[in-house]
Amino acid sequence: KMATPLGWSQGGSGSVCLAFDQLRDVIESQEELIHQLRNVMVLQDENFVSKEEFHEIEKKLVEEKAAHAKTKALLAKEEEKLQFALGEALQCQEQSPAGVQQEGPAHHQVQ
């Protein structure tokens, strides 16, 4: 017969088997819980970004917004210049009589 492990009672093989079965059930429950937690961790890895990565992306977004605002302001300035030039061109066109050529080469008649 095998020796009873230290700390176990010698109350008979039935109580040892019962304790072993209970211990096995606890271990199986813990293994199932560990498996579920690992699945949760995998989902978290897929769905979340690290704080450092978030702050890096947030910083880039702020920089992009600043660059966009600067470009938008430059575009508005250029559009204003263009509108002014267009207005000047239209004004010149309205002031000159139709069919009269301005600043062209002199026409010579052949004799």
Description of the structure:
The chain is mainly α. It has two domains: 11-48; 49-93. The chain is 72% helix and 0% strand. The chain has helices spanning 13-47, 51-95. The protein starts with 12 loop residues before the first helix and ends in a 16-residue tail after the last helix. InterPro entries: SPATA24. This is Spermatogenesis associated 24. Pfam families: SPATA24 (PF15175). It comes from Mus musculus.
How many independent structural domains? 2
- Please give the alpha-carbon distance between the first and last residues: 143 Å
Beta-strand proportion = under 5%
Order of helices and strands: HH
Q: What low-confidence regions span 5 or more consecutive residues with pLDDT below 50? A: none
SS elements, strand count: 0
Radius of gyration, whole Å: 44 Å
Structural class: mainly alpha
Q: If helices are DSSP runs of H or I spanning 4 or more residues, what is the number of helices?
A: 2
Organism: Mus musculus (Mouse)
Protein name: Spermatogenesis associated 24
